[in-house]
What we know:
The protein is of the alpha+beta class. It has 2 domains: 1-41; 58-110, no CATH class. Helices cover 29% and strands 25% of the residues. It contains 2 helices and 4 strands. The chain has helices at 2-28, 37-41; strands spanning 64-71, 74-80, 86-91, 96-102. Strands 1-2-3-4 form a 4-stranded antiparallel sheet, with no helix packed on it. β1 and β2 form a beta hairpin. 3% of the residues are buried. The model has no long low-confidence stretch (mean pLDDT 82).
Amino acid sequence: MKAIKGLVLFLGILLVAGLGVLGYGLYSKAPFKGTSATMVASPLAGTSIAEFGNIAVPVPAGTRIEQMSIAGDRVILRLSGGGPERVLVLDPGHGKVAGSFVLTPEPAIR
Length: 110
């Protein structure tokens, strides 16, 4: 019985040490460690973006924005409805549509 208690204690210490090493590894690889929340929220606070007014992005009627994400200085929109699904790449810095992808189904293989 004493051996089992010793084994449980050893495994508990090993588990806590492993979690500590894992936590340290995640913290040391964090992209914004040591910065304040305001700097993370607005990394370009000192820069100004030229105004570009309203941009007309032609899409078919009934189109919905399913997902929006940011990749570098581009905005990626996944659109559905009103035709085939599309991925639209916008460049807000220049105020234009950088490109688009139309997702078409693959033909059935027999």
